[in-house]
Specification:
- The chain folds into two domains: 116 residues, Aspartate Aminotransferase, domain 1, CATH 3.90.1150.10; 258 residues, Type I PLP-dependent aspartate aminotransferase-like (Major domain) (Aspartate Aminotransferase, domain 2, 3-Layer(aba) Sandwich).
- It is built from twelve helices and 13 strands.
- The strands form three sheets. The protein has a seven-stranded mixed β-sheet, with helices on both faces.
- The two termini are 23 Å apart.
- The structure holds 4'-deoxy-4'-aminopyridoxal-5'-phosphate.
- The site of 4'-deoxy-4'-aminopyridoxal-5'-phosphate has 13 residues, from helix 3.
């Protein structure tokens, strides 16, 4: 099988990730924070090492503000529900994933908050950071408390102007939350420079770690209320969660093997070099786009935005059918709707039954992309 579904989760994982997880489970998988014996301490040390390198990687100088979760969705839910207060107004981009849209819609339906959607102008030739911020400015209300935006989309390769949006929000005292599900490990992110208050990311996609790990990183002083409560190994006689991160948010046993694997994934991305990785993604995108656009019945959506995600359709062929046909030929792609009703609406793909998403990772080759294009060409309704 050739794997082109890295936007869902990266595969295969680097050897170093697998080896470290095995080592963890064989030699040091005590329960961090539960007891002071050697194996609990060894697990705690590994987790702290991952916090430190993760903070470094994303431009935060506070390892304790890196909080591990199961995935991006849990990170976003914790940040959104923990920071918003009754009466707040929120602005979200028109490219958000359901991991943002659904918690926001629920809070709005419960009458707790109100929200509006700002345009990221993906079809506008005059798109610019300044004009996107101007759109945002027009929607501000007296009670606007938070802006949420994904950095890179999961249905095409558009990237949002995070630094400009961060500066805009900071100047106005608005919380800026970034969904980095598709950009962590793909694009450079510096929380301080980009003025991000909370960064939510997966460990299992671009950072090449295993499933079962995600995280959020808080700017110093930003303290959502916890989403879940329970034992954290600290202050066990208190009836409340500890006040400080990370224990404030990490109730229950952590996924130590997954976090140990994530640390190796981050190191691997560091070795490969994030700028170089992105350049290679763009080379792959251009190669595939060129091949697909030569097939007369193929549409590539948002073709000018280059990166690791390419969405296409072949005329007369429902995306699901194309996905199944490619699967039979040995290619893993994702077809249909991609948990982003808002994004599909913005991109204009809803009426086509959405599309076939090809998302590549660092180990995919141009030859594999060529073979995929040959397969698409040869599949007929
Ligand atoms: N946001 C975006 C933009 C995504 O692409 C995804 C994953 N498809 C998520 C959030 C949710 O990520 P996770 O599966 O790690 O919860």
């Amino acid at each position: 099988m050739v794997y082109f579904d890295h936007a869902a989760t990266s595969f295969p994982k680097p050897r170093a990730v697998v080896d470290e997880m095995t080592k963890c489970m064989r030699f040091y998988c005590g329960n961090a924070g539960r007891g002071s014996h050697a194996l609990a301490m060894a697990a705690a040390e590994k987790i702290y090492q991952c916090r430190t390198e993760c903070a470094d990687f994303f431009g935060s100088s506070h390892p304790e503000n890196v909080i591990f979760t199961l995935n991006t969705t849990m990170a976003l839910n914790t940040v959104i529900k923990g920071l918003l207060r009754p009466g707040d107004h929120v602005l979200i981009s028109d490219m958000e994933h359901n991991a943002v849209l659904r918690p926001i819609v629920r809070l709005a339906q419960e009458g707790l908050i109100e929200y509006d959607i700002f345009s990221t102008m993906i079809h506008d030739g005059g798109r610019s950071d300044v004009r996107i911020c101007a759109r945002l400015a027009r929607l501000l209300k007296r009670n606007t408390r938070m802006v949420i935006c994904n950095h890179a989309s999961n249905i095409c390769s558009v990237v949002q102007p995070i630094k400009a949006l961060g500066t805009f929000c900071r100047k106005r005292g608005i919380l800026f939350v970034v969904d980095a599900a598709q950009s962590a490990g793909h694009l450079p992110i510096d929380m301080e420079e980009m003025q991000i208050d909370a960064l939510c990311a997966p460990g299992h996609k671009g950072l090449l770690g295993p499933q079962g790990c995600g995280f959020f990183i808080l700017r110093e002083g930003i303290l959502p209320s916890p989403l879940i409560e329970g034992g954290s190994g600290l202050h066990s006689l208190d009836t409340q969660m500890p006040q400080d991160p990370p224990e404030r948010y990490e109730a229950g046993t952590l996924a130590t093997p997954a976090i140990a694997g994530l640390l190796e994934g981050i190191r691997e991305v560091g070795r490969l070099g994030i700028e170089r990785l992105h350049e290679q993604e763009c080379v792959k995108f251009r190669a595939l786009r060129q091949r697909l656009l030569r097939i007369p019945s193929v549409t590539v959506y948002a073709p000018d935005y280059e990166g690791s995600v390419l969405l296409f359709n072949k005329k007369g062929m429902p995306p699901d059918e194309m996905g199944r046909a490619l699967d039979r030929l040995g290619f893993c792609v994702r077809a249909g709707y991609h948990c982003s009703a808002l994004g599909h609406k913005t991109l204009g793909t809803l009426s086509d039954g959405d599309g076939v998403r090809v998302s590549f990772g660092p180990y995919n080759t141009l030859q594999q992309l060529d073979a995929l294009a040959d397969a698409v060409e040869g599949i007929h309704p």
